[in-house]
Amino acid sequence: MEILFGGVRGTTPRAESRFAIYGGHTTCLLVTGAGGERLMLDAGSGVHVANAALEAVSGLDLLVLFTHLHLDHILGLPLLTTLFDAEARVELASVSNDNEGPCRAFERLLDPPLWPLGLDALPATVTYSSVPPGKLTQTEPVLRQGNLEIRGCAVPHPNGCTGWRVDEPSTGASFVFATDMEWSAAGPKHREAFLATCRDADLLIMDGHFTAAELPDRTGWGHSSHDECVAVAQEAGVRRLLITHHAPDNDDVLLADLDRELNASWSGASLARQGDTVILNEALREGRNSL
Ligand SMILES: [Zn+2]
Ligand SMILES: [Zn+2]
Fold this sequence. Notes:
- It is a single chain.
- The protein is α/β, with parallel strands linked by helices.
- It has helices at residues 47-54, 100-109, 188-198, 226-236, 252-265, 282-285; strands at residues 2-7, 28-32, 38-41, 61-65, 89-95, 125-131, 143-145, 148-155, 161-168, 173-178, 203-207, 240-244, 269-271, 277-279.
- It has one domain (2-285): Ribonuclease Z/Hydroxyacylglutathione hydrolase-like (Metallo-beta-lactamase, Chain A, 4-Layer Sandwich), CATH 3.60.15.
- The strands form 2 sheets. It has a 7-stranded mixed sheet.
- The longest helix is centred in the C-terminal third of the chain and has 14 residues, at 252-265.
- Bound molecules: zinc ion (2 copies).
- Residues 68, 70, 157, 180, 222 line the site of one zinc ion (ZN).
- The site of one zinc ion (ZN) has 7 residues, from loops.
């Protein structure tokens, strides 16, 4: 299983050169399974980076799974290249009690005067699926994409958010994507469920929007700190940690300092960078390569 980091910036894109190394695009991951299956997690402006990998493929069957529908996680959707391929099928999925809420959000995003082209004017076949919150468990997959099994866990964030775990039984690869989560707001049940979701995964990709020093003044903002990410990763027994959703004002100089501190605190931890590709395989599991 391969993961392309299309965007790792939180809240809003940044295009200035001082954000070029860690990247200014907002959240988007493109996952490619061993069987060639494609899964996109969130569709922030990092869709542009994912598009480069998708453009050559026609007739794609793409599942776009959302952690939640805040603007920084959906704003790249109107320019997803697969939506312009008449042979392609795109399924948009999120956690909701019904299709109505997510559909309305996407229709509002792709509707004049906010955007010139509605979803039904796009050539691809687009479908919606909702995962009822009550169906999220650590045992049964709630969605599948080819050979990829997807499980989820509710995480604390304003308006709600879901952490997704993706397993590939044919290779044993697994990772958890938990962007936009306020770990300090999680009660004991939430914590237990999330740690069970992460247990023994190859990789945890977690929201570390704030530094430990910033966090006390940001209660209720819906995000975690780098220190919390390391504590969660170690408690859950994951092999590697990549921290994402970098604060929009944290430029490359600051992030490089934070990255060094982070790596000194635990060699398995780094800050995620836009454009990086991570391959989850045996070598990673045995500690023979690093991220
Ligand atoms: Zn966000
Ligand atoms: Zn959010």
